[in-house]
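QA checklist item 7 of 12: single-chain prediction sanity check.
[x] sequence parsed
[x] length recorded as 167
[x] structure emitted
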Amino acid sequence: MNDDRFAPPQAYVEDVQPPEDALTLASRMSRLGAGVIDVVLSLVLLGIASRLTPWNAFEQPTDGFWFVPQFGNALGGLVLFVVLNGYLLVTRGQTIGKLLLKIRISRPDGSPASPGRMVVRYGVGSVINIIPALGQIYGLIDCLLIFRKSRRCLHDVMADTVVLKAR
């Protein structure tokens, strides 16, 4: 006797292609690659600045590195970051690394992120990193949050941004 009441449901489901204008999150590896490119460019510029000016960002502080706020290095690093990436961030939502890897920062709905959101996204971490030990804890938490399904780091959540594949 053949009893269909207990048979698995039979349904045909076609794969649905997302529309071409759909928002696609950037991969974790592309975000890491963009970050590495940005850090290498920053280090090159810091090296040049250290050679041409009295300021040396690579010099070790003499008094308790873990307990003395690093205002000079933080300010100098922030200025160099803005020189390298400020225009691209405001006009395209990209750093040099993000531009090269074809990803961009935007709002969750795909609209451009405002300059104020970029200040929150990059500025909060910069200020926290001035405080020894706390900056390292913030950085660790910030990086680890990318492993969530949303792929949003702490700085993305604070600025209400996402990183998408550029169109």
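[x] summary fact logged: The two ends are 58 Å apart (CA to CA).
[ ] second reviewer sign-off
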